[in-house]
Amino acid sequence: MMRQHTVKIEEHLRNVRNFHDRDAAKYQRERYHSNTCEGLAYLTRKEIILGMASILPSRILDVGCGPGILTRGLIDRGHTVFSADLSREMIEKAREAAGPGRMAASSHFVVSNASEIPFASNCMDMVLSIGLMCYVSDHKQVLNEIYRVLKPGGHAIIQINNIRWPAMYRMFVPLYHRLKSIVFGKRYDDINFQFNFSSRKKFLKDVALSRLDILSLEHYDFRVPFVDILLPKLSVGIGKMMFEKRNSPFFRRFSHGLLIKVRK
Fold this sequence. Notes:
By secondary structure, this protein is α/β, with parallel strands linked by helices. The chain is built from 12 helices and 7 strands. The protein has a 7-stranded mixed sheet, sandwiched between helices. Helix 4 (71-76) links the parallel strand 1 and strand 2 (80-85).
């Protein structure tokens, strides 16, 4: 039984790595634009994270860094950035994002599994986990690793999908993907792994069990399901309006993304 479980995890990691290797070259080009709610969500998320990371120049680990979307912004703010990702192709894109010369001297890169972060304990001032938790089999193990590498008093910013009812979410995701394929021509046939769609409530409970103290929550990615595909321009306008009113309990119901700031 243990052997089967290990093989299953290894297969999942391999499929996730291969998916992101293929996605690396087009990741930023296809996601970071403002003409759809999804693209607007990525742009908004980046700005919120850079604001939440406004601390004194520090050692920051970006685990699951992807193509280094945050790297240049963090280096410009004086931080030393350690970028880690399962995908070697993503790491190469992150190197390019860091830039040459002085910029490159403030950045470091490693291919690694988020469940086994290859850094010493108590060595990071901040850890970022953005766009990662839905890809890992066991987010509790990743949370424990984040806790381990953080210095006492260090902070982490963790992003999750703002899911209330995971069973319903899983049921509608295939339909959502199918509709996006028809309208935008986006392909999903190369996804051969299961996403870890945990509820917001359960994830916040697991954060507490990992001994990380929750400091603040930031909502982003506001959209009405399916309307964002069928009426993208109207949906972007509505999404911007809801984001401006994001502190309202009513509009938070339409938030698809959650950023959690925690402290060790």
